[in-house]
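Quick one: structure for this chain?
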Amino acid sequence: MEKKIYAVVYTYDPQKSEDLARERPGHRAFLRSLFEKGELLASGPLGDGQALIIVKATTPAEALTLLDPDPLHAQEIIKDREVKEWNPNIGPFAS
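Got it. Here's what it folds into:
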């Protein structure tokens, strides 16, 4: 099955900002490992307690499964994860 690009939006639990700060280095190391494997295309904060993570996966469920080991997910710092297929037609991620 062909891999597609998915945009995953994390919404952080606002009551866990201290936990977020503590776990951020592990979160970034985890994302860097996905990038080095070619599974992560980009990531970064959106503001308002959210972050955008762009991954390659075959299905939306696989995109979330790929991110399950994220320390922020394991520590329940992420309140919600929303995933949408993204079809870039201009720029470095366009096919």
